[in-house]
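Lab manual, section 2.4: Encoding a predicted structure.

Procedure: take the sequence of the chain (285 residues), apply the prediction step described in section 2.3, and record the output as structure tokens. A sample record is shown.
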Amino acid sequence: MTAFFALATSLLWGLADFGGGLLTRRTPALTVVVVSQGIAAAVLGAIVVATGDWSEAGPRLWFAFAAGLVGPVALFSFYKALALGPMGVVSPLATLSVAVPVGVGLVLGERPGLTQVAGIAVAVTGVVLAGGPQLRGAPVQRQAILLTLVAALGFGTVFALITEASTTVTGLFLALFVQRLTSVTTGGIALYASVKRGGEALPAGGFPWTSLPALAFVGLADVAANGTYSVAAQHGPITVAAVLASLYPVVTALAARGLLRERLRGIQAAGAGLALVGTVLLATG
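Recorded output:
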């Protein structure tokens, strides 16, 4: 069961990341986040009402609320980084999010093993190499790397929080609904503030109604991935769930190569690969 749900997580996250990054190339990132997460919140709300999951309400929902505050920042940063591209570099770097549980363990008194130390070294090397020669004299590429690292920190925090938000499947729906409702509210406030400062909420042609199905898919795939990851982590070793779920960049990279015909420089591909290897070492150490 753990392997099945973890692999489902990697597939869902990979496709959601690809779709979100693609949409952000035509629509402001905050708008993509708010609309896609809003659709997901509406669907989850209907499920909660239909199943009576309100009975699962309790103190653990504060973890879901906190995840909802962090989530929009991570998604906005990640979609913006994916829009700057290339996806084949950005997506693997985001797997550094598993470093967050390692950091939490250090604070609680745990000490990393030799494998984890090696994973940290390999991952950091991957971050440096993934920028490749484009890091010199290319502010956009530096911005993409920085945004990806911010997103990775946010994702890792969300994963840790949402796993603690519920211990039952029915309670998970309520936790995910609270998370998404908080995300939409937070993202909506940020979008309003951006517009007040002169930013754009919509592309030049108005709201992209033709993109609505894609926006719905991104939001629902993302929330489903959070759910399958939580189930995987609760029904088996977290290390196994984390390793298998961390394969999602492969899905994004393959989609980018197959549909967008992206080509990566050798040093960038090597760096992205090292970041992925470092992530696996961190998760299994």
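Check your result against the sample. The chain has twelve helices and no strands.
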